[in-house]
Design brief:
Elements (H helix, E strand, L loop, with lengths): L1 H5 L6 E2 L6 E6 L2 E7 L5 H12 L7 E5 L4 E5 L24 E2 L6 E3 L8 E5 L2 E5 L5 E4 L5 E4 L13 E4 L13 E7 L2 H4 L18 E8 L11 E4 L4 H11 L22 E3 L1
Antiparallel strand pairs: 1-15, 2-3, 2-14, 3-13, 4-5, 4-14, 5-12, 6-10, 7-8, 8-9, 9-10, 11-12, 11-13, 15-16
């Protein structure tokens, strides 16, 4: 894989739009996300509103479930003293999937259990029924999702989670995925595990405080992460996928010669 990346050119890389970048600060460090504006525009915009009104500042990570997710939001959600959403919507129509017609999709050759076709769309792992059907983001490690209740429209972006374990692909098309982690996921994967049901923390003292969440375009240039992401619509990316499928390193005795969408690395580089 390193040889493929060493041979890449500047045209193979892209810089994410600062207005789609989310900076989450915990006491242990910073996590940086890219929002999937093209898949979940309403939720992305609602998250921008929540962030601009400082909704998340002082709230907390309330859940860390082993091999599953880390989740954050208002510990008092649903109570009389819950934080007001301000100008943001408190519920949104779900954006579980969208039309695949005319939508950019770089298919990979993979026998997937959850989708007819899998690949990447504008830098995000995705599945689709076919070019004339539906397309959706997939629950790979590091993906950012919108928490909801039983009602499909009960999510708004006020509660968010990140996949921190084995890909729970059964959640595909049942939750709005709105982005992915670009940097700093170790600050979520190493959180103490919750001992309550589903990994929720059982007391306020266990909650992990959120110092702040900011959009990239709110920050001065010197506080933004100077990061590039390998484009997923390039020959270089296709070569990387094949290098991961057919493992030629001397260590491998019996390479699988297969690959799953969540096993494909999405390289980034910090300048």
């Amino acid at each position: 894989m390193s040889g493929v990346l060493d041979a890449s050119t500047s045209a193979d890389w892209r810089r994410p739009d600062p207005s789609n970048m989310l900076y989450m600060n915990l006491d242990t460090g910073q996590i940086v996300f890219e929002l999937a504006q093209h898949f979940a525009p309403a939720h992305a915009e609602n998250i921008r509103t929540l962030v601009s009104e400082r909704f998340f500042d002082g709230l907390a990570v309330v859940r860390s479930q082993e091999n599953y997710v880390a989740q954050w939001g208002d510990p008092n959600a649903g109570e009389d003293d819950a934080r007001d959403h301000g100008d943001a919507a408190s519920s949104l129509d779900p954006e579980f999937y969208r039309s695949a017609i005319g939508f950019p999709f770089s298919r990979i050759d993979s026998h997937d259990a959850y989708a007819n076709e899998v690949g990447f769309s504008m830098g995000f792992p995705a599945g689709r029924d076919g070019p004339e059907g539906r397309a959706w983001l997939t629950h790979c490690f590091g993906m950012l999702g919108v928490g909801r209740g039983n009602e499909p429209d009960s999510g708004s972006g006020a509660e968010l989670y990140v996949v921190t374990g084995h890909a729970p692909r059964h959640l595909d098309r049942n939750v709005t995925l709105v982005g992915r982690v670009l940097d700093g996921i170790e600050h979520l994967t190493t959180l103490p595990r919750g001992t309550g049901p589903l990994g929720f923390y059982e007391s306020a003292s266990e909650n992990v405080p959120i110092r702040s969440i900011r959009m990239g375009d709110e920050l001065p240039q010197n506080e933004r992460l100077d990061i590039e992401i390998l484009r997923t619509d390039t020959v270089t990316f296709s070569l990387l996928v094949e290098a991961r499928r057919y493992r030629a390193e001397p260590w491998f005795v019996d390479p699988a010669d297969r690959i799953g969408v969540c096993n494909v690395p999405l390289p980034t580089r910090i300048r």
